[in-house]
Amino acid sequence: MDLRIFTEPQQGASYDQLLAVAKATEDGGFDAFFRSDHYLVMGDGEGLPGPTDAWVSLAGLARDTSRIKLGTLVSPVTFRLPGVLAISVAQVDAMSGGRAELGLGAGWFEAEHKAYGIPFPPRRFDLLEEQLAIVTGLWSTPTGETFSFKGDHYRLEESPALPKPVQSPVPLIVGGGGKRRTPALAARYATEFNLGFVTVEDVAAAYERVRAACGEALRDPGSLTYSVALTTYCGRDDAEVRRRTHAAGANVDRLRTSGLVGTPDEIVDRIVRYAEIGATRVYLQVMNLDDLDMIELMAERVLPQLR
After folding, report:
1. Whether domain 2-82+170-306 has CATH 1.10.3720.10
2. Residues sharing a CB contact under 8 Å with residue 246, sequence separation 6 or more, in sequence order
């Protein structure tokens, strides 16, 4: 089982805080450090010192870390043109020595688009489909050849399709609970399918839809990685768990069915339930970026039990 640390910097984080979490992730033996790609705080709070751009910060981490994978869960198609996105991710992949991963989604948070003047078109899933085709097409075009694309939303003419990423292919994550188009896109383009913040039963149903879509696309369902993202609060004992959840105002009842909350052994038991329905990777969503102690605790007492 791969365990990854997943953060939400739009809630308030500087680059130095992200770097501290990434280094704790690396030192603790986790597989990867991932971050959301948002520009506006959600819920209560001021979000100080303000948003950080996902791929700018990952470029910094590419140089300031040495082993862990680095990526987004997920980048909205509304934020970047696909050709620009392909260049950015390929550059971070080169800067990290082949450790970049791209999660790509349709985008949903309209308020952040209004706050920063970013268009929020209604047919974003159509944008996602075309961006997936373009990004993968640019990366897979042989060096010396060109790539062209003519869609309803984007057109590329004789692109040199450069730079190339170090990895071939770059790991590409598609996720969500859509019952028809999402599984089809995952089967066609993704190396990983992800679903977050729902029950074991809902994850199992989504995985089955993706496996069926792979069958329809004549793709081996076993060639995909199946992952889940879960909000996580771990403590050495019940008192420490209560302290962490209370400080965050967390919905503990919901976390017990659609997240991870408890002592290290309780966290492991919950992860095993997701493993039993096919998950081989878990993104541990850590909300308090100053609580490095929780990351260290999970590195010491959760991670060894799942290797």
Report:
1. no
2. none
SS3 268: helix
3-state secondary structure of 75: strand
CA dihedral 54→80→206→257, nearest 10 degrees, is: 30
DSSP codes joined into one string, 134-176: HHHHHHHSPTT--EEEE-SS-EEEEE---SPPSSSSPPEEEE-
Which one, of 234, 281, 242, lies nearest residue 261 by Cα? 234
> How far is Cα 236 from Cα 239, in angstroms, rounded to an integer?
8
Tell me if 298 sits within 8 A of 263, measured CB to CB.
Answer: no
pTM for the full predicted model = 0.97
Q: Is 53 left (phi over 0), alpha (psi -120 to 50) or beta?
A: beta
Q: For residues 220 and 213, what is the distance between their CA atoms, to the nearest angstrom?
A: 10
**Average pLDDT of the chain to the nearest whole number:** 97
Domain extents for the chain? 2-82+170-306
Q: pLDDT by residue (tens digit) across 258-275?
A: 999 999 999 999 999 999
Of the candidates 14, 33, 15, the one whose C-alpha atom is nearest the C-alpha of residue 24 is 33
Instruction: State both tokens at 234.
Output: 């771990």
